[in-house]
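FIELD: query
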Amino acid sequence: MIKFIIISRHKPGMTRERFFYEWAYIHVALMVQTASSMRRFTRYVQHYANPDIGDEHRLLPHPPQDWESYADHGLARFEAYGPAPDYLAIMRPHSFSDSAMEIVYLEGRTEYRRDDFRPDGVKLIHRLARRPGMTPDEFRRHWRDDHVPRLVEALRTRGLRKYDTCLPHEIDLDALRASRKGTLFDSAEVNTADGVEELWFDTLEDAMRLGSDPALRQSLSASYASFTDIGQSYSMFAQERVVFDFVTPGETTPRPAVLDDNSLEARLFKSGRPFHEPRPVEPS
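FIELD: result
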């Protein structure tokens, strides 16, 4: 599965609290009524980030853009497509995020998973840039062969529930930009990260211990420095919320009603827009 990631923050003039409210409730309510989105996305996970956590709790720097959201959309395959008519009518008018954002297409691999793991909860997300002079293959080899075992050994008894490493999925950037021209995504940075780590913890204190515990900080900082450009990388402390999941065994959610032609939601969706313009009733 390909992970289509949007990293963003609230738009100017809006508070973080309002941004989170609109993302959690208004955006989701509109999304599950948008048939093209519900057909395309196999999984949707929101991450509510706190950029105010101090650097003394971070192994990697604070995100300079003060990112507050990390939206993970599951895709069966990559498609460079323009917004569908229903998306333009339903989703596009709801503007709640800044035009500054990062977009990343990733493919993930689970490196460690505790037997009692369940999704949601506290996560630490590391956006990684490779060390100058290191090739992508060298970066990946150092990361997965050397760093991953060291990190798992250090954290498996310190609240680590799961650990995924994610590498960029190769895409046609020209086709993607052409399909998104004129949209909010038009000016976003795309696939500039060399990799992303996702780490699930029991508590926020467990996640912050990576920076605040002197022994952990010394050991893991040296490991990151061996293959990453620490100054160009950053960390996000976040709360994960799985909105829907149609593909993970044991965690699947119901299919959206808008895709059932006999549902009330589908009938409302098909009733058309705009509602404020009078139009004749079509014969049944």
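FIELD: remark
The chain has one domain: 2-270.
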